């Protein structure tokens, strides 16, 4: 990329922060533009022409437009194969992508209702039974991560930091910052501190914003 890429999406969005952290890890110049609730609307014709789903983030670079946060992170890592964020070897790569996909399809849906109810205080997410079910599901998914980290004693996919840890690290931050009862997961706690040694996580993860 000859010029800084543009990242459209407000910096408080967990999915935007995945891309921002990835850029920091890769040392990529970028311009972040605030779009989403509280900022420019993603439902304008201008934005919908970039992403018909009206969701952030959107990446714009010399090659064109790309949306879906995990796909953007993969794309950026593929542009810099020497970074190690996304392994080249098929098996190692599949393990990283497995945990990225798990974050998007299993972990994220578990906390949606509880997060909207407890943090965003959304009036449609205040049913006590549904809140309780979401919290139980969220902690159950976090226990899966705990078990994986007990096995690796390092990062999600093994010994080395990867894109899987960018997406999961932000989810761990959200879990820790949500006002709820947190089971004692020592491997997750150690993982959180391990990630906190990375400047990109301090900028876009462990900053007190779930």
Automatic annotation (TrEMBL):
Protein name: Glutathione S-transferase
Domain GST N-terminal: 3-84
Stored InterPro entries: Glutathione-S-Trfase_C-like (IPR010987), Glutathione-S-Trfase_C_sf (IPR036282), Glutathione_S-Trfase (IPR040079), Glutathione_S-Trfase_N (IPR004045), GST_C (IPR004046), Thioredoxin-like_sf (IPR036249)
PROSITE patterns named among the record's database cross-references: GST_CTER, GST_NTER
Originating species: Pseudomonas piscis
Listed Gene3D superfamilies: 1.20.1050.10, Glutaredoxin
Matching SUPFAM superfamilies: GST C-terminal domain-like (SSF47616), Thioredoxin-like (SSF52833)
Boundaries of every GST C-terminal domain copy: 89-210
């Amino acid at each position: 990329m000859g010029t800084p890429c543009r990242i459209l999406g407000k910096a408080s969005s967990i999915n935007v922060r995945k891309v921002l952290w990835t850029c920091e890890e890769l040392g990529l110049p970028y311009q972040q533009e605030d779009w989403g609730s509280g900022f420019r609307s993603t439902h304008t014709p201008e934005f919908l022409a970039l992403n018909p789903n009206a969701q952030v983030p959107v990446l714009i670079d010399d090659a064109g437009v790309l949306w879906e946060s995990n796909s953007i992170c993969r794309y950026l890592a593929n542009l810099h194969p020497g970074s190690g964020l996304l392994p080249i070897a098929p098996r190692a790569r599949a393990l990283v992508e497995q945990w990225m996909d798990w974050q998007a399809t299993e972990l994220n849906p578990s906390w949606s209702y509880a997060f909207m109810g407890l943090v965003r205080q959304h009036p449609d997410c205040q049913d006590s039974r549904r809140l309780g079910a979401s919290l139980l599901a969220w902690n159950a998914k976090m226990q899966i991560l705990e078990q994986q980290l007990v096995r690796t004693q390092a990062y999600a996919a093994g010994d080395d930091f990867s894109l899987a840890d960018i997406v999961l690290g932000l989810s761990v931050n959200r879990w820790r910052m949500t006002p709820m009862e947190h089971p004692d997961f020592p491997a997750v706690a150690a993982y959180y501190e391990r990630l906190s040694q990375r400047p990109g996580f301090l900028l876009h993860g462990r900053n007190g914003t779930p």
